[in-house]
Write a structure and sequence with these properties.
The protein is α+β, with helices and mostly antiparallel strands. The chain has a domain of about 110 residues. The chain contains 13 helices and ten strands. A hairpin with a 6-residue loop joins strand 9 and strand 10. It is elongated.
Length: about 300
C-alpha cells in the first residue's frame, strides 16, 4: 500500500477526463485522509499545471548521447536500491535478513547513511568490514570527504544513494536479497517459478498503464508509484521496467534524489514522517518536470532486451 499516494495523485485527473466523477471524488477523499486537504489540493493543482504546460506547447524531444550500457545499468541499480529501502519503510519494518551475492560499482554517486564504526580505510578494508555484517551493510562509499583512496562502510538501515558532483565519487552497493526471495530462488521446481512470474502480471493494472503512459507528468508519477508497488510484492523485473520508464522522462539523478534524499528514505530516517516525505517527493518530481522546457531522452537499453528507449 505504500505507493498509494503517488498512484492516487496520478489517477485523479485520468478519472475526471474519463467521465468518472464519483470515482475521482472517492479517490480525492482518500487522498485527503492520507495527505491532508490543503496539501492534496495543492498537489493536484501542480499536477494539472504540469500536464497543461506539456500539452499546450510543442515539447521538443531531443535525444542525447547514448548512455554507456554499464553506467546506465548501475545508476538504475542505485535507483532500485533506494526504492527497496522505501519499500522497507513502507512496510514498517527494519528487518535486514537476507543473502548477499556481490557488489555493484556506481560512479558519480555517494552512499549516505550511518557509517560502520572502524570501517574507514582502503577499499579492501571497507569491503571486508561490510561483508562481516552481511546484509546489515548497504555498501561502501568514497565521496571526496576522505583522503583519495579511502572508503567507509555504511549500515543498510536508513541508507540511500545520491548523485554527487565531487570528482571521483563512487559507491559500491552490497547486493543482498530478502530472505523470502532467497527461498524462492532456491526452489528447484520450475513450475513454482513460472507461477510466481504469472502472479506479477496484473491485467487490470496493465489496462490502466496503457492509458496513462501517454499523459505527461501522470505517466512519470504512475510509473514510479507502480515501480514501488511491484518491488513491494517481489516483482523485481516489472519494478525495474517501470523505474526505467520514469528515468527516461526525468533522468536517474532526479529519481535518486526523489527516492533517496531528504524527500525519500532520508526524510523518513530523520523522522520527517511518511506524509511529509511523500508530499516533498511529489513536489520535487513536479518541479523537476516544470524546469525542463525540452524533454531530454538518453538512448537507453536494458540488457535483457525488454526495454529500449531511443
Amino acid at each position: 500500500m505504500f505507493p498509494q499516494e503517488l498512484l492516487g495523485l496520478s489517477l485523479v485527473p485520468v478519472l475526471v477526463v474519463a467521465g468518472c466523477p464519483k470515482e475521482a471524488q472517492t479517490l480525492i477523499l482518500k487522498l485527503y485522509d492520507l495527505l491532508g486537504v490543503v496539501d492534496t489540493d495543492e498537489l493536484l493543482m501542480d499536477v494539472e499545471s504540469v500536464i497543461e504546460r506539456r500539452m499546450s506547447k510543442s515539447v521538443r524531444v531531443s535525444v542525447g548521447p547514448p548512455l554507456e550500457k554499464n553506467k546506465g545499468r548501475r545508476h538504475m541499480e542505485a535507483v532500485m536500491f533506494n526504492i527497496q529501502q522505501l519499500v522497507m519503510v513502507g512496510r514498517g519494518t527494519s528487518k535486514q535478513e537476507g543473502h548477499c551475492e556481490g557488489w555493484v560499482k556506481v560512479n558519480g554517486t555517494t552512499l549516505v547513511g550511518t557509517a560502520v564504526e572502524g570501517s574507514t580505510g582502503t577499499l579492501e578494508e571497507a569491503v571486508s568490514s561490510c561483508e562481516r555484517l552481511r546484509s546489515l551493510c548497504a555498501g561502501v562509499t568514497s565521496n571526496g570527504l576522505h583522503k583519495p583512496g579511502m572508503y567507509l562502510a555504511v549500515l543498510k538501515k536508513g541508507s540511500h544513494v545520491l548523485p554527487s558532483a565531487t570528482s571521483g565519487s563512487e559507491c559500491w552497493i552490497h547486493q543482498c536479497r530478502a530472505e523470502e526471495d532467497v527461498l524462492m530462488a532456491a526452489g528447484s521446481d520450475r513450475r513454482m517459478k513460472r507461477s510466481t512470474q504469472r502472479n506479477c502480471i496484473n491485467k487490470s493494472e496493465e489496462r490502466v498503464y496503457n492509458v496513462v503512459e501517454w499523459i505527461p507528468a501522470i505517466s512519470t508519477l504512475y510509473n514510479l508509484g507502480t515501480a514501488m508497488y511491484y518491488a513491494s510484492v517481489n516483482c523485481s523485473e516489472t519494478a525495474k521496467e517501470r523505474a526505467i520508464l520514469s528515468a527516461a522522462d526525468i533522468g536517474t539523478d532526479v529519481l535518486m534524489v526523489a527516492t533517496g534524499g531528504t524527500v525519500g528514505v532520508a526524510g523518513y530516517a530523520l523522522g520527517a514522517g511518511m506524509k511529509t516525505g511523500v508530499k516533498a517527493g511529489v513536489r520535487y518530481l513536479l518541479n523537476s518536470m516544470k524546469e525542463e522546457d525540452d524533454v531530454l531522452v538518453n538512448q537507453y537499453s536494458w540488457e535483457e532486451g525488454v526495454i529500449t528507449i531511443q
